[in-house]
Write a structure and sequence with these properties.
Layout (H helix, E strand, L loop, with lengths): L8 E4 L4 E4 L42 H4 L4 H28 L7 H23 L5 H23 L14
Antiparallel strand pairs: 1-2
Length: 170
């Protein structure tokens, strides 16, 4: 697979993504889930204190935040995650069309589309079941987080020398 030249850098300020040769992508998706301090508190379901760090979109354990969020807030956050992933895929396509020095293999885009389709199906299924039980809701949200993290790592990987770990919540 072709890799970018060292002079090629792509920055999408809307996503907070910077891709540069020889470096791992830095994600700054801080508006994906609301801060725990801004959500309605549920004392019976609280897990941890309200100063928990915000979800950064890289497989971080968000169950602490889920306990302090309403079902509607979680569902809205999941939909935003899907949109961010779709925007990243469109940005990669634009990069391929506009930059001669930057090649994104067609096979990778096809594979990414398949992963995104699976993620969309999982998202609809998860949102439909969010209101059933609190523990089921946490399970669905965490599994969707895994799916989105894997998609992002795959989309950002360029060449065999780049390996990215997805950290799964315990």
């Amino acid at each position: 697979m072709d890799r970018c030249g060292s002079e090629d850098t792509f920055v999408d300020h809307g996503l907070g993504v910077e891709l540069q040769e020889g470096s791992q992508p830095q994600w700054n998706i801080r508006n994906s889930l609301p801060d725990a301090n801004q959500c309605r508190r549920r004392p019976s379901n609280s897990r941890g204190d309200s100063s928990s760090s915000r979800y950064n979109g890289l497989g971080e354990d968000i169950s602490l935040l889920v306990g302090s969020m309403s079902v509607e807030e979680v569902a809205a956050a999941l939909v935003r995650e899907k949109r961010l992933t779709q925007r990243l895929l469109r940005s990669l396509r634009r990069m391929k069309r506009k930059k001669n020095g930057l090649e994104v293999a067609n096979a990778s885009l096809v594979e990414s589309n398949l992963h995104l389709s699976k993620c969309n199906f999982f998202l609809r299924d998860s949102v439909a079941r969010l209101g059933t039980k609190q523990d089921r809701m946490r399970y669905d949200v965490k599994n969707l987080t895994f799916q989105l993290s894997e998609i992002r790592m795959m989309l950002c990987a360029r060449g065999d020398k780049h390996t990215y770990e997805v950290k799964y919540p315990s």
